[in-house]
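Sequence and fold:
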Amino acid sequence: MTEPTPIKVYLDDNIFERQTPRGWVRVVDAQSAIFLLQTGVVEEISLDYDLSVSEPTGRVGDGVVVALWIAEAAKAGTMPPLKWSVHSESMAAWRVRQAMEAADLAWGASR
């Protein structure tokens, strides 16, 4: 059986002002990013903080939602270590970094 090809995920809903980096898969909402993370093929993720309201639920699924999900999965031992970055220009993006640093600590403790 062939191993799945690892992917890089770019979470950003601003398709007009930010280009998807070459070789990356763009997702525009938190739910899609988490879905891909659950497949186990994501090797790297770049997170935006501010995402638009997702229709029809009206929920905001920002990068913090994804980062917190990753941190919890890392602590539970169900998420392998992955490379990450935050490309947001928002002042509140520190929350994304903080959650991802918690994931890094969990991964470091289990290595």
Remarks:
- The beta strands are 7-11, 25-27, 42-47, 53-54, 59-60, 83-86.
- The chain has a mean pLDDT of 88.
- The chain has one domain: 7-110.
- The longest strand covers residues 42-47.
